[in-house]
User: Fold these one by one.
Assistant:
Number 1:
Amino acid sequence: MRIDIVTLFPAMFEGFVNSSIIKRAIENNYVEVNIVDLREYTTNKHKKVDDTPYGGGAGMVLTCQPVFDCVKALRKEDTKVLMMTPQGKTYKQQTAYEFAKMTHIIILCGHYEGFDERIRTLVDYEVSLGDYVLTGGETASMVIADSIIRLIDGVIEKESHENDSFSNGLLEYPQYTKPRVYEGLEVPEVLCNGNHKEIAIWKHKESLRKTYFKRPDLLENYSLSEQEAKWIEEFKNKE
Ligand code: ADE
């Protein structure tokens, strides 16, 4: 997979591509991450990439020319173009799975007041992180790229993301590590007894418990098994 991130602030990505799992994924050729400086594509002799909005209003708007030329230069047959914008569809784990199947993604990061509306004709997906406004799409694009890269086969252990929160519609069960008792706080006995069947049932129930108490909205679209419905009754009685 190749991910091209188009930005006016390439320096913001230095830490992202040079740290931890993302760095290793790049070094081991699971993914190619290309940070593209939009300013390189402007034909303006002062390297200007934005202008004042028609009809008036605050701030500056990214102009069409550099973005159109940049996408034209980068696009291949199987490319999908993503635009980071608070006007996009709210990003979810299910979308990360969908994007992780793609072979080439271009992510457009906006800055200032946003993009000239005509730039949207180049775009396949408008993506928002949530209902708030960032100073630019750069931090948002790192979130998107990170969530995609970790799903590429081989980047992390498959089991790690199969148990992720949201992967099965529920939050992930609680995790513990050594020591077994810390300042009087104990690890649940069942996790230490080596009975894998019991452990699997406990994880499933605790995953449901977390979801019920922290994100009940996730259960609205979740079809409960008979056992899960019984557990929910049990949680309700303890509320
Ligand atoms: N750019 C500015 N705000 C954003 C948001 N909430 N999501 C994605 N891109 C953005």
Note: The chain has two domains: 2-158, 181-237.
Number 2:
Amino acid sequence: MDKFYHIVTYGCQMNVHESEKIAGILSEMGYASCEVPEEADIVVFNTCCIRENAENHAYGNIGMLKKLKAARRDMIIAVGGCLTQQMSKAENLHEKFPYVDIIFGTHNLCHLKELIERKLREKKTVIEIQDTEGDIREDNRPLRTSYPNAWVNIMYGCNNFCSYCIVPYVRGRERSRDADKIIDEVRSLVAEGYKEITLLGQNVNSYKGRLTFPRLLEEIAGIDGKFRLRFMTSHPKDFSPELIDVMARNPKICNCLHLPVQSGSDAVLKAMNRRYTSADYLKKVAALKERIPDCAVTTDLIVGFPGETDEDFNDTLALVDKVGFASAFTFVYSRREGTAAAKMPNQVPEEVSKARIMRLVDAVNAKTRALSQTYIGRTVEILCEDYDGKRGLYMGRDEHGRMGYFACEKDMTGQFVNIKITHANGISLTGELVQTV
Ligand code: SAH
Ligand code: SF4
Ligand code: F3S
């Protein structure tokens, strides 16, 4: 192999998996992966635009390649993903970084091979941004990089139009993959030895195929072999008793649920177009915990949404306290051009948002830490993912998604082990190996 690629990925799991598809295309073209852009013949940036800082990260790193590109003019730089799906951003990128060779949108990933071939023939920048979603392509074989986990798309796009969110604009409307293709894919992944399957979609609960989402999940959980089944993300408005039932009855489905609430204030939730109230949310979580007391609930929270008052923010703190999230991603609202919220009055000043996020992070962390302490003395099953050479420790996760560390000499990646927890630190646990499962 004498041609190399390097992929830089920003954003969510959807993008991580799409980078695996990009890797699949490049490896079929004869490129091999390399660790640093300096050694690469093609560098691909798979971008995200969910918040301004995600964009800025990408711009910063693309900018850093300017010198390298000047020294190695035959190196190809391609930029794709959610950021470049927006025509204005793509044009801006082209202007700011004229040395970028290929610019493509989220719907054009499957044409990457053709785009590269075109670039090798033509001198000028190749730009392809399709504004229609097109059909679901089943022919891209991903080159998976996250063993023992395998990501599996069940749907693409989003119809929810939460007023702050850019995703529906850059990912298009919801399209569900054929249920049988999904089931076949999982079956072969399990046969290949993957030990954790994570089903992906912006809102998996609104999956629409031959089966409903809970039935699809149940069919997948019925596949032979020892593996864990996860799914993300669920929208609270579509989170149903039927899904709780399927989770409770199928031991392969992990007892954990990522259920983004965003805010605890009904006025803010309404302005966000989330279509549930904080009471609806609490009721759903209570129903889940009643059926599966051990279920870890995690969430996403936004502070500083336009018009958010101190009182609204206090409602968020109160909700966090009531639910007791195992962990939470906390974000400062970022104004996204083109969304409904971008035009709303009363944008919250930065210093107010900053003070709020600090209080929120403290509240969330205190709960996470307290929950971690309850693990001490317990034996938990960990799926080994990685070796932390610096600390001489193996890292894996329990079914709740908590990281568990233990000392071990041999390669255990992909194995289930039981460890007895001796220490807890933030969200991570440390323990002693009891037995291999
Ligand atoms: N489809 C998923 C994930 C969407 S993006 C869902 O609905 O939950 C992940 C998270 O980013 C969201 O849950 C939200 O908390 C956050 N987010 C989205 N747009 C944002 C914005 N403009 N500013 C700050 N956070 C945002
Ligand atoms: Fe964005 Fe809302 Fe869709 Fe999630 S459900 S991707 S937050 S619009
Ligand atoms: Fe970002 Fe696109 Fe995911 S905007 S969060 S990479 S869907």
Note: The longest helix spans residues 350-373.
Number 3:
Amino acid sequence: MVVANQKGGVGKTTTTVNLAASLALHGARVLVIDLDPQGNASTALGIDHHAEVPSIYDVLVDSRPLSEVVQPVLDVEGLFCAPATIDLAGAEIELVSLVARESRLQRAIQAYEQPLDYILIDCPPSLGLLTVNAMVAGAEVLIPIQCEYYALEGLGQLLRNVELVRGHLNPGLHVSTILLTMYDGRTRLASQVAEEVRTHFAEEVLRTSIPRSVRISEAPSYGQTVLTYDPGSSGALSYLEAAREIALRGAAMHYDPQHAHAGHQNNQRSMSEGIQ
Ligand code: ATP
Ligand code: MG
């Protein structure tokens, strides 16, 4: 699952690590791939990612096996992380001259032999080669949307990129999930934005939205997800509930894969229409 939105600070990393922890706490084996040079997902999971640590950069640029960079997350059984170091900042440029530059992550994942139920990829806030690598490797895209005024600006560009990757490089890719983040139900603006997003993307938006929560924003400074930092908080419960929706959808798709797939394809040809 590719967690992408080229808009910065909308909750991609927060969503990646907390959904991953929620799924792992329910018994799934989950790998988080940190594909952002900022390394925020690695930090939030308490994973060492100083410059010498073997990282996703080595996988992408030097074809190092993914198994050599994956580390277990200490607090959560079944949760693993492929960290990002600052080296990754150069990868956008270094990848340009490499063979199969768009599919290097896909190849690395295909060669990874450990059993996993989910892989969540945290993308940087751009639509460059790192995000393209994630989209080529992934089966579906999760877009976190922050409930504020500019929420839908740039979304059309993101959806067109998904369509381009689907058309040329990864025919199965689709936007499966939209999650409303930092939702503050007391403001009229937040509920208006939420309503607009739900109108455009009735199928994709999860029923659960993530509230604005101090506990969610505090957790990374302790190298923890909110699920271990404050398991009873509203933020933890909302991510658990969102993960439950995602798991149930996945189960439904396995039950009737043809139907689910056809539905997505038809739906999404027109998904970017009407969105700028
Ligand atoms: P970037 O584009 O830089 O990678 P991002 O999309 O990954 O950003 P996050 O880093 O997850 O966004 O979140 C941006 C900021 O908002 C962080 O400081 C995070 O702690 C905070 N934040 C995210 N979700 C919530 C929430 N539900 N409640 C309160 N704060 C939140
Ligand atoms: Mg981030």
Note: The domain at 2-275 is CATH 3.40.50.300 (Rossmann fold).
Number 4:
Amino acid sequence: MKSEMKEAGTITVNLDGETHDFPLYKGTDGPAVFDIRSLYKQTGAFTFDPGFTSTASCESKITYIDGEKGVLLYRGYPIDQLAEQSDFLEVAYLLLNGELPDRGERERFDTSITRHTMVHEQLKNFYSGFRRDAHPMAIMVGVVGALSAFYHDSTDINDPKQRLVAIHRMIAKMPTIAAMAYKYSIGQAFIFPRNDLDYTSNFMRMCFKVKAEDYEVNKVLSDALDKIFILHMDHEQNASTSTVRLAGSSGANPFACIAAGIASLWGPAHGGANEAALNMLEEIGTMDRIPEYIKRAKDKSDPFRLMGFGHRVYKNYDPRATVMRKACHEVLDALGVREEPLLQVAMELERIALEDEYFVDKKLYPNIDFYSGITLRALGFPTDMFTVLFALARTVGWIAQWSEMIEDPGQKIGRPRQIYTGPALRDYMPLHKRRLEPTDV
Ligand code: SDX
């Protein structure tokens, strides 16, 4: 990937009576960056930015977010247009290659993904090692991490051909692995993928078909899920994507990097929020209990947070939440469960939160996870599968960002530093000379 940052001036740092200049760069859009790669060499000082709230970790051409304006673009295309007009594999092609495919490119890509949806027969043995009540995300981390043990022929990251095979295998096998995790957790037989179904219909069938009877995919529902997958596909340098990049920067194989991303996504502050948001709505239960939870969310001494609200970047509405909310209503209408009590609670909670000055002042708006839980539950998925579905979709973003990093000529192993405030140098103290405890005498 060729750098396309444009010089936009310099900043001067005065330290210990010396001045140091650092270049300022601008990109296509969004905040400029100060290039401080030589800061330590020139000044002997580090920057300090826990949580990386003001740090750009890389140059990327894949996704652009404007948190103030509520903008999300995949390779320049607005997320709502892609969700409404495209489909999962076309958007996957776009994220991987930078352009929408022509007819031939699309057919070749679909064929390649379809031909990789099956998993090695012995991979099934991994599932039987888990308890049936294992959280499906625990299974995903384990099974995806083990893929490199089965696909040695696509782990050489310096071989572009092997990288392409690994990328297609990862995208193709995630639905199969995820569906198997679900089937295992409910004690049902695994269902093979079918080559005559589209990506998301195939996944729904592998989840909901039972061997004893045929299963007809409801196109309205699989289209809604396909849209939900598009919304979750990538999101710039979020925690799990940064985890994948950091793991990949050491040269780890792509399967291990994706397993690291799955582990990071699992956290309730990140991808685990959809499961946590639904659990929260179920705990609230009825609209009359909403004020009690709003009060708790504002109470600093109470660890409770309103799951599905707030975002590190979006300080206005999460544009995905807008599309997610619409998809939620479409699914509930299609299923005739419009009066779903949790939806009523969710809509009332959203209304109250958006009027409450605490949430307005702190710019805490519903994020993508707020409505996804209700929708996924209506589609028939259990709560503990919600983050698995998030991981299935985000695998495309993770592998596209990993690929961009590997192809970046400036790429090097990620190795942040720290500010040390521990004990100064001191000599070892033999036990008999240490501070005596009553029990030591
Ligand atoms: C995802 O990064 C990504 O792009 C993530 C993601 C993606 O696609 O990859 O978009 C997916 O992870 C969406 C976010 C899902 N998480 C949740 O819904 C969990 C609930 N939200 C919070 O945990 C929180 O809002 C975060 C983690 C999402 C954002 O945290 P920040 O930006 O670090 O903000 P913060 O924790 O510093 O909070 C700022 C203030 C604090 O109050 P003060 O200390 O300033 O007084 O807002 C408060 C927080 O206490 N606050 C909340 C709140 N979120 C923040 N108070 C109540 N409820 C909340 N949900």
Note: The first strand starts at residue 6 and ends at 15.
